[in-house]
Amino acid sequence: MKPANSVLSGYGTTVFEVMSQLAVEHGSINLGQGFPDDNGPDAVRRVAAETVESGPNQYPPMMGIPELRQAVAAHNRRFYGLEVDWRQEVLVTSGATEALAACLFGLIEPGDEVVLFEPLYDSYLPIIRRAGAVPRLVRLAPPDWSLPRDALAAAFSPRTKLILLNSPMNPAAKVFDRDELEFIAGLMARHDAYAVCDEVYEHLVFDGRPHVPLMTLPGMRERCARIGSAGKTFSLTGWKVGYITAPLALLQPIAKCHQYLVFTTPPNLQRAVAFGLGLDDGYFAGLARDLEAKRDRFAGGLAEAGFGVIDCAGTYFVTADFRPLGFNGDDVDFCRHITTEAGVTAVPVSAFYEGEAPRHFARFAFCKQDEVLDEAASRLARHFGRS
Ligand code: PMP
Ligand code: GLN
């Protein structure tokens, strides 16, 4: 038999799937894959349910229903002062995962270079490689994940088509500040490059920090495709509704990819997300406040259990160094060990790197009920002899 595509067949099953299955097998508390254990806002789900009942339930327009595209444009104006033409500059996708694939396949030509920061989300590299581009990886180093400006400048070249920027960043929980974004914008302008901005955690930023979309910086409006996800903004990760905001020149080829990849996204969910994006400021502030309190609660629990906890400025995730516990093994061993022996699951941070990687960090998702977080922390403390 002829071989299947060699790029994709070289990858295994994602770490999220593997660890979630292991968690189910062992009945452990799953703080691996990042999904909340509540049901999202009632009012948003009610709109979805009503629209399943009443319809429409047939193919919506390829770009997304007007109501949601208008809501995305209004959201851009409300939170970031971005003026967006909903007819030409917004595309609804089946989750941010599809948005990323549509952006990368739509913009990349074989032989192009793409600059990315490591550690990185797992879907980026397979798609970039399948599109025929050459990734240029720039590493951020824990514990502060600061921008290595020289290495970043060296990664750009005349062949750089785009940079893929994830802020707030999974798994590092770093939020890029304006000064860092200005540096990136300068490189993009100098090298005539675009940015695909994965901003799915835009509303999960803590300690009063602002989330600054790269797209809002001078000269960047025409160079950025900005991606959001209802999964994160409404704690409904299974819905897979995403949205891209981009200038027409970029959105046109991206939409061409989308129309052949999935064509569209369930209309009832789109309608509910349109409603959600119109919720008052209190909803969005409350979401960040609740998650921030959970971060404090669980990071405190991890520290008491003996972990070296790294600062977390946003997202669902906290990264912890397990060396102080005296565990003998790498991060993959550690995450399996705590799943089977302590009843708590995390994901190994080395899964977010290519090649050599730090092997002493585990990533824990804290988007869970307080009792669940407390129980997980006390199981870890008990297991490692701290209580
Ligand atoms: N980007 C990042 C950084 C993520 O963590 C995730 C996973 N939640 C996604 C994209 C995918 O989002 P979605 O579930 O909307 O496809
Ligand atoms: N974004 C989620 C995480 O980082 C996982 C999404 C997935 O399972 N593909 O945990």
Please give a structural write-up:
With 387 residues, the protein is of the alpha/beta class. The protein is built from 15 helices and 13 strands. The strands form 3 sheets. Strands 2-8-7-6-5-3-4 form a 7-stranded mixed beta sheet, with helices on both faces. Strands 9-10-13-12 form a 4-stranded antiparallel beta sheet. Helix 9 links the parallel strand 5 and strand 6. Helix 13 packs parallel to helix 15. It is globular and about 60 Å long. The structure holds 4'-deoxy-4'-aminopyridoxal-5'-phosphate (PMP) and glutamine.
Q: Main beta sheet: strand number and arrangement?
A: 7 strands, mixed
The backbone outline, from C-alpha atoms, is globular
The gyration radius over C-alpha positions equals 21 Å
Order of helices and strands: HHEHHHEHEHEHEHEEHEHHHEEHEEEH
Distance between the termini: 58 Å
Bound molecules: 4'-deoxy-4'-aminopyridoxal-5'-phosphate, glutamine
Structural class of the helices, strands and pairings? alpha/beta
| Strand line-up in the sheet with most strands | 2-8-7-6-5-3-4
Unreliable spans: none
Question: What percent of residues are in strands?
Answer: 5-15%
Number of helices: 15
- The proportion of residues forming helix, as a percent range, comes to 40-55%
Give a count of the beta strands, DSSP E runs of length 2 or more: 13
Instruction: Return the average pLDDT rounded to an integer.
Output: 97
